Amino acid sequence: MTNSERAFVGGVILSPAITDTFSETVPPHAFTDLRLASMYEATLAVYHRSPETAGDPTAVVAELTARGDLLRVGGAIEVFNVVHDGATAHALSWHASRIIDAARLRALEAAAVRIQHAASSNTPSDDDGTADVIRFAWQQLEDATSAIPTRTVMPMSTVFDAWRNRSESTSVPIGLDLFNRVTSLKGAHHGHLILVAARPATGKSTVLAQSAVAAANSGAGVLFVTLEMVGEEVLERCMANQLATSVRALREDGVASLPQGLHNITLVDTATSVTDIAAIVRQSRRTRNPIELVLVDYLQLLTPPSRTSENRQTEVAAISRSLKRLAVEQRVAVIAASQLNRASENRADKRPSLADLRESGQLEADADVVMLLHRDPSEPFEIEFIIAKNRHGAIGSFAGEPNFERATIMETQGSMSKAV
User: Fold this and answer.
1) Out of 3.10.20.600, 1.10.860.10, 1.10.260.40, 3.30.390.30, which CATH number does the structure's domain 1-149 have?
2) What pTM was estimated for this model as a whole?
3) pLDDT digit string (tens) for 374-387?
């Protein structure tokens, strides 16, 4: 591997025009030879500070001298020897891929050691401890595979060809027709994070249940992560929506069998993290019906990536970033319920705004769409949907739809389908 590292560094020193291609994808910590890593860092520093001097080995020598690293790397003669062994510009990509692959394998080996230690230290009879070890193992694998960043660079023509020849839909139906009209979106798109935010008992869980039913009936695989209800409660809400009845009627009359479409929904009703969710999504890729839509009820109840965060705001921000990353990397749509703070209750009209998102402004930054739910005390049987952010189109508001009414306000009559 040192030969590839040596050829790569020497080639980068002499090919400044290609430096931007590798400066992010091949970080210095990917090298096994620390001397070559120091030369590479000095080369990047020269390029970023004064591109006009890049490509000159003497500039790299001067940079190493200023850093106090010249003797440690073997002196000026060693820098020129590395340049002599450098690869051509056309061969740099091949050497870069070898360096990155080797770094990833080392990260996986280190993760395996940590996982083995955690597993051997756990008592098999300790159920909670075993679950923690499994969660730790997935987190270690996730960290290891993302330790070396990747960046895909391609011409626009390549992107266009892939877009024109795409064979699969990039969106999942979620059953909110007026949502589609207001936002100009056709459901929830792969790679998007949609937030459904409201004060408690306003209808967040029911919106997610309706989205789950609509997506499942279209044939899409759905993962419903519920941390606020047990699985039976989610089942009741989904069946009530599917059968156009109330939860009370379901409990009184019963149902002989599970509606066919709902077989496409997978439930998780235990404490979990985004890493756990990503693992379930990846595992579903080996089945006939891979998961395309992930629903989280609700975001603030997810286990944060690290329990050593400084405060709750930092933890929620980390969860938000992880959900967006999940959507993009796994090519799924993510709809997450989120709590609002009490600020709206102090306003005259009580209507929520983006500033009311609880515990983290990162939620607003990461979300593609933020949908706020509002129930006016003077109109207790009507829910207003406020599209407060839409990265891909218009914003606006509309009232609840008939299906939403049946599932949420089970014993009332009247239409909630008019646009606001």
Assistant:
1) 1.10.860.10
2) 0.63
3) 877 777 667 788 88
